[in-house]
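Forum: Protein Structure Q&A
Topic: Joint prediction for protein chains with partners

I've read a bunch of threads here and the consensus seems to be that you should model interacting components together rather than docking separate models afterwards. I'd like to see that in practice. Below is the full input, 412 residues plus whatever partners are listed. Could one of the regulars post the assembled result?
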Amino acid sequence: MRKLLQSRKSDLLLAMLAIAALQLALLLSGYSGRSLPWGGASAAVAMCGKVLAYSLAFGYCRAIATEYRPETWLRRAWNCMSLFAGVSVIRYLFDTQLIEAFWPGYWHGQVVTVLREVPGAVSLFFLACGVTSMAVAFLKTRLGFSLRGIDYVSMTCIFGFLLMVLYLRDDMSAASRLRHWVPRNAQLASHMFFCVTAAGAIVLLRLSRQMQGGQLALSMAWIIVHIGTRALLVAVVPFEGNLTAVPHLKFLESLVYESTPWMFTVAAACRYHLTAGATDWSLNASTTAEPWQPTALPGNHSPQA
Amino acid sequence: MFSDMASKLKAATPVSGADIQEALFRWERQTSPSRRVEYLRVYLSRVCGTHIAGRALGLAAKEAKAELPELVESGQWRKFIASLSEIVGGICGEPAVLLLQSIASGI
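Posted by a regular:
Agreed with the consensus. Here's the joint model:
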């Protein structure tokens, strides 16, 4: 696992592209849905890709959280992000047709709704907490971060629009017909948490722009891309009727959706490598370097002391 | 072939390891605080962006009672680095502080 965490950002992006290419190859070869009796090779590739991506993200986020002092907002934020990644692994393990091989009738029972909706809601709760804690951490510093009026307007619009789309889409009405109150409320809660997360991404966008570059802003940008892509996939739902001319629209949507875990993994990797390399360098340096003591020197190089 | 060349070069070089250490030590001492602040600014800009770098250095200088980061004097240096470490640690974590302190003490 430690070796895997040393993977560079480009390695992770290559892994994301390789999985997408594999799925495309399966679609073009006609194997999707036929090669395995319990669902399809495509489902296997999708599940393995998402589980691998979120497992890596979990490792990265845990390592990042330990770099901060206890009781700090950024430690809380990265702990929440690690919980989001960890619960997402569980979520995707239960959200695949492959389970039919070990648990016949799984997809036709009541328990499937509980095992799909509850981890989904819990993971989004942690993502919302993570994004909010990160925003609070930067806004509480005395480094001049602030929000503008347009940010509040954007947050309200995004929150309202996404909530409306999520409430009106078919899945929601399907959930409202469920007998179990647990999955019914879990789905409603997950919609609320996702809207909070999407609105929080606006704050992160403002903060990353105010940073004016740097690895930290790059990491935040990947978190924003992860949330933004997921929000875009939700927002496109009402317009699917008008997009029938686009060939393989559902497949393209699923391809983009399955890339979103890798976006989060790249975000965590960017942040992890920011200090992982720094530690090695500083440890080497601290063993060789003497503490600096300014001394009066002849010539033009005299220190200001 | 290369090992032969290396040993010949080593034998021909009149500078010992101790001389190199001494030269490095002298260079460390000759690096002015303003240049070290410039190194810190470059490092912080790469890690946290130019905005955070500028604000963090400014805040740390203010807490060390210096007008500007480049004008920090030897008596204020320790306080300046302690304040800067506090700010950077809160944003980038403790490993980033270790590197910052390495740069501040002279590499």
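The longest helix of chain A spans residues 249-288.
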